[in-house]
Design goal:
The complex is a heterodimer of chains A (about 270) and B (about 280). Chain A is an all-alpha fold. Chain A has 13 helices and no strands. Chain A is globular. Chain B is built from twelve helices and two strands, in the order αββααααααααααα. In chain B, α7 crosses α9 and α9 runs antiparallel to α12. The longest helix of chain B is centred in the first third of the chain and has 33 residues. Classes of the chains: A mainly alpha (about 270), B mainly alpha (about 280).
Chain lengths: ~270, ~280
């Protein structure tokens, strides 16, 4: 028993060491400027919130956080909304070419962004959508849609058909069965798919870097990549900005871990 | 309304979005790659396969292809080895599983731009933790052509290993304990039990994970673009970075698209292998 506890503790310690680069960044964000370069001591003599103050008052970050949150939530809504309808059709209705469509969805999840970024850029320019939220919502939403459809079709197939048949006996049509029987049961699956879609959008860099030009639509990863330094690189400020950029992912691995894990497993195993 | 019509109706919005924003761009990029298009000089004419012919003799392209292969194979191999090791460590965990998974998955969930910025600071010659832990040596990790690619691979391994570990861990949890008890009765323990029970059961999932990670590593862009920008002296310039440079820095839309198409073809080739493996696993199950 005691050996087991010791072992558990050692594994936790090893994983904490694994996560050390992140904790180091957190410490850097609280370290006074004078103790950053050169690094002479592991622990700072005092902690300061000055870097957060600079980032929140003087940088593009607050605006970028709003942009990222808006874009990520709306593209997730787009993917999960359209994805749920499509997944229900593929899982339950006699759609011709169903297998081919599902296979296409898997192939589409593997598309490299670098191959579609140039036509999408031209498309967004033609539509007058450069530097808007809508461009990113459409690009991110469509990029995650195949994965969301694939996941949800799998989750819906796990629901016993008998439940919908019972509803049909009670006079419910297909749409009513979707609304009152399937949706409540597939809600946890929607959470899993939605979390993955949200994380993709929150972290997405290439589309955002290419389609945006100003604070009107720049997202957090772009603001971080372009973080300005006047004479030297402001490492403390960058660390503070990284921490702010990491808040939603942290919340997800801590609070919504169960859904994240389920989505990841179902998405990778494709069974 | 018939079920069939309802099915199409429910599918239509998703298919319309995918048609317009995924399929159409995927075909358009093929078309673009067959043209000379340099918008700043208003150049737009048919090029046929000239870009591809040029790539065949382009040393920068072959350099980038080589780096992509080295980056992908080293990253994926290290991720699989380390991921399996972590999964084996996690398997016996009784207390603090949630905390353990949170610590592990954090690296995977962070934006890769954050990871790149984090490692850029860790590798800093004078301010970085790495040199500090090496006793205050001044090594320019990201500026040295011999060290930049390994340094980049380490950053990517850190980011992607949790994914491999999670998949292996999930598989390990499904192996019934009595299999090991039976093996123990037969006198097999430790390494022998691993070779006889664990490895055969984990191998299929590890193969799937390996292919999945290969897909991702081939199309990786953010981490090298932000961490090293392809430098120093092009030693970390993968095909994706080369494509981006051609597309948006030298503004050769046609030429850059041709490199994008090559990445596309590479990734799809791996995807076909992946689907076959999955299909075989499904038939076997």
């Amino acid at each position: 028993m005691r050996a087991g506890r010791l072992r558990d503790g050692l594994v936790l310690l090893a994983l904490a060491v694994y996560a050390a680069p992140f904790f180091w960044q957190a410490l850097t964000s609280l370290r006074p400027d004078a103790e950053l370069l050169p690094l002479t001591r592991l622990l700072p003599s005092r902690l300061t919130l000055a870097h957060y103050d600079v980032v929140l008052r003087e940088s593009l970050m607050p605006r970028a956080l709003v942009n990222s949150l808006g874009v990520a939530l709306l593209s997730t809504a787009l993917a999960v909304g359209l994805g749920t309808l499509a997944a229900f059709a593929l899982a339950r209705l006699p759609v011709p070419g169903r297998r081919g469509i599902l296979l296409g969805m898997i192939a589409a999840t593997a598309f490299p962004q670098i191959a579609t970024v140039s036509p999408l850029y031209l498309l967004m320019r033609t539509l007058g959508l450069r530097d808007t939220w809508l461009a990113l919502i459409l690009a991110n939403g469509s990029f995650t849609l195949p994965l969301v459809i694939w996941l949800l079709a799998g989750f819906i197939r796990e629901i016993p058909r008998a439940l919908e048949e019972a509803a049909a006996v009670d006079g419910a049509d297909r749409l009513a069965a979707l609304r009152w029987v399937v949706l409540p049961l597939v809600a946890p699956g929607m959470a899993s798919a939605g979390l993955l879609a949200f994380l993709f959008s929150w972290n997405e860099f290439l589309f955002a870097y290419t389609f945006t030009a100003t604070g009107a639509s720049r997202t957090v990863p772009v603001a971080l990549a372009l973080f300005p330094g006047v004479f030297e690189v402001p490492w403390g400020d960058i660390a503070a900005a990284s921490l702010l950029a990491s808040l939603p992912p942290i919340l997800i691995v801590v609070a919504f871990q169960r859904y994240l894990v389920r989505g990841l497993l179902a998405g990778a195993l494709r069974e | 309304m018939t079920d069939r019509r309802l099915g199409w109706l429910l599918l239509a919005p998703a298919l319309a979005v995918l048609g317009g924003l995924t399929v159409y761009p995927a075909l358009w990029v093929l078309w673009l790659s067959l043209q000379y298009r340099i918008p700043v000089f208003s150049i737009a004419r048919w090029a046929g396969l000239e870009h591809y012919a040029f790539l065949a003799g382009d040393t920068r392209f072959w350099n980038a292809a080589g780096i992509t292969v080295v980056f992908t194979s080293c990253s994926v191999a290290l991720e699989c080895a380390l991921g399996l090791a972590i999964a084996l460590g996690l398997r016996g965990q009784h207390r603090g599983r949630r905390v353990a998974l949170a610590l592990l998955l954090l690296a995977w969930a962070l934006p890769s731009v954050v990871t790149a910025k984090m490692f850029e600071w860790l590798y800093h010659p004078a301010g970085g933790l790495v040199n500090f832990l090496l006793g205050g040596r001044i090594i320019n990790w990201l500026g040295d052509p011999a060290l930049a690619l390994p340094a980049l691979i380490v950053a990517d391994v850190w980011r992607a290993t949790p994914f491999v570990a999670l998949l292996c861990y999930a598989r390990l949890l499904t192996i019934p304990a009595d299999l090991y008890e039976a093996a123990q009765v037969d006198g097999a323990a430790g390494l022998q039990a691993f070779a006889r029970i664990t490895w055969p059961l984990v191998r299929p999932i590890l193969l799937v994970t390996l292919l999945f990670r290969t897909l991702d590593a081939l199309r990786a862009f953010d981490i090298m673009f932000v961490l090293t920008g392809g430098g120093p002296a092009g030693t970390t310039e993968t095909l994706t970075v080369y494509a981006y440079r051609a597309l948006f820095q030298t503004l050769q839309v046609g030429f850059g698209s041709a490199i994008g198409v090559v990445v596309f073809a590479l990734v799809m080739a791996v995807a076909v292998v992946y689907l076959r493996v999955i299909g075989r696993a499904e038939r076997a199950a």
